[in-house]
Specification:
Length: about 200
Amino acid sequence: MKLTRIIYLPIFLLIYGIVELLAYTTIMNKTSWKMRLSAALCLLVLLTTYANAQYKGKADFKEGGIYYQVIGSDSVAVDFEGTITFVNVGHGCYSGTVDIPATVTHGGITYTVAGINQCAFYGCYVESVSLPATITYIGREAFSACPSLQAMTLPASVKRLGIGAFARTPLLSINIPAGVEELPDGIFAGTQLTSVTIPSSVKRL
């Protein structure tokens, strides 16, 4: 399940539950202790669900300080280890400057680094991330909520960008590669962008 879906669904249910409860008590003119207790229990259940919402990393191994998930016989994607929750937003696997190599060798096999997985850098204090020319996709919320990320250079090899990939970051400028055909919903939501270069290949915004 997607992280945003996990996090925001309980909020919707919470608001819906409160509205329904208020409407019922207004119509029926009942404010007994039973009604108050029911409301309190509903809130407790929903808040507990919200607090325990999580998304787990899928890394298979770690090399050079970077976590990877094997996605093919000779390819991997950057991932993370740990769990992202409402209480502990961000997994903290990366910080500062991160240089992602084009290839990585593990267990005697050399893999091509082909992508950045969902939430790979979510909430991390990275200042800059160098992407190799082998990266073809950047997953959903891959760099979302990174409070120190102000610049990102995307290689020409990138063809696909995920929903909210750079959302809620202090990103100031970015150039979209010519091979990208779609800018998904919320990709730059909550940023401070002053410069965006969008190629003619983009068919949908």
